[in-house]
Amino acid sequence: MSKKVILVTGGQRSGKSGYAQRLALSLSPNPVYLATSRIWDEEFRKRVERHQRDRGPEWTNIEEEKYLSRHDLTDRVVVIDCVTLWGTNFFFDNQSDVELSLSLLKAEFDKLSRQDAYLIFVTNELGMGGVPIDEVQRKFTDMQGWLNQYIASKADEVVLMVSGIPVKIKE
After folding, report:
1. According to the annotation, is 96 in a ligand binding site?
2. pLDDT above 70 for 8
3. Which of 14-18, 113-117, 119-123, 157-161 has the least mean pLDDT?
4. Is residue 13 scored above 80 in pLDDT?
5. 137 annotated as a binding-site residue
6. Full domain range(s) for residue 46
7. Radius of gyration (Cα) for the chain, nearest Å?
8. Domain holding 15: CATH number?
9. 138: number of CA atoms within 13 Å, CB side?
10. Is 76 annotated as a binding residue?
11. Catalytic residue chosen out of the listed positions 38, 51, 66, 106
12. Domain count, the chain
């Protein structure tokens, strides 16, 4: 398996995760699912457990809120789902400090992407949904957009999902 970075982006429910998972399974019989979500409450914990069951036993599931690079993913196909939740964890842990959070996220992305692995990042295009009404949401949307741009600039491929249809925008 060759080293590669792919970014899959789009709006909510555009088919990003499904596309990323199908791609991973087409490349490996046992890919890794690197989930970045923080478990906020019991309902969310049940949702995470359901998603894990739905993926099936062929997946290696890793839960990691922030420091993705501490996992050795050498020679693995990995779906990182998702960049938005990963960014949320840094943003809130750093009291909504955009500059600090963005610098830490970029550094962690750089460390992870140096591994000899096939990395498929899933993210949201938050800026396509209009301008948020409150300051914290606007700051987060800005940070997320800048992080997406950074990852896209480093990615070998970028796929935009539109209504379940993958549109390759960088090959």
Report:
1. no
2. yes
3. 14-18
4. yes
5. no
6. 2-168
7. 15
8. 3.40.50.300
9. 5
10. no
11. 51
12. 1
